[in-house]
Amino acid sequence: MGCRDVHAATVLAFLSGTASVAGLLAAVLLPNWRQMRLYTFNKNERNVTVYTGLWIKCARFDGSRDCVIYDPQWYTAVDQLDLRVLQFALPLSMLTAASALFLCLIGMCNTAFVSTVPNVKLAKCLVNSAGCHLVAGLLFLLACAICLTPSIWVIFYNNYLNRKYEPVFSFDISVFIAIASAGGLFFTSVLLFLWYCACKSLPSPFWQPLYSHAPSMHSYASQPYSARSRLSAMEIDIPVVTHAS
Question: Does domain 8-32+78-114+125-199 have CATH number 3.40.50?
Answer without folding.
Answer: no
